[in-house]
What we know:
There is one protein chain. The protein is α/β, with parallel strands linked by helices. The protein has one domain: Rossmann fold (3-Layer(aba) Sandwich), CATH 3.40.50.300. Helix content is about 60%, strand content about 15%. It is built from nine helices and five strands; from the N terminus they run βαβαααβαβαααβα. It has a five-stranded parallel β-sheet, sandwiched between helices. The relative contact order is 0.20. The structure holds adenosine monophosphate (AMP).
Amino acid sequence: xxxxxxxxxxxxxxxxxxxxxxxxxxxxxxxxxxxxxxxxxxxxxxxxxxxxxxxxxxxxxxxxxxxxxxxxxxxxxxxxxxxxxxxxxxxxxxxxxxxxxxxxxxxxxxxxxxxxxxxxxxxxxxxxxxxxxxxxxxxxxxxxxxxxxxxxxxxxxxxxxxxxxxxxxxxxxxxxxxxxxxxxxxxxxxx
Length: 191
Ligand code: AMP
């Protein structure tokens, strides 16, 4: 079993590299952003609550997102047998602590945190390009800058948190998609 957190700022390539990791290691993908966007599309109550935060570039409250994560884990026990890739979660220290507990209760743990490191100017460029291609509502310049600020304030402390646990693996997130994936594979295969 291989449980990985794919970690990095908005636009660092988490979703893209997750797609390749899922295929290569046969992992179950949990993207909390995708779960929220799906709820917004379906017009659920959760979607309505989440939309307000997402459109402002803010994080959805921890208690809500932790509940969602526990539910997704429980609903997909079979599919998650080989392991899980957590994409966009955890984003705060309380979320990381909750994740540790949820996994411990299920007899497992995080094996590695793959940190995609990309300079700020490149992140903005990528987010705006994605916005043009996918029409993601929060991929506009104003919200992107807010999301990066939220990342620096609330999410980036997780790097030190996982470094202390010896789980953080820094990956240079600049380069070709396949080149970056090779670096990740090398790191995980030697984990
Ligand atoms: P993402 O697709 O991962 O970039 O997430 C898009 C938006 O969904 C974020 O800007 C947050 O508003 C919300 N979101 C996704 N995952 C989380 C999380 N783990 N904690 C809080 N908010 C989240």
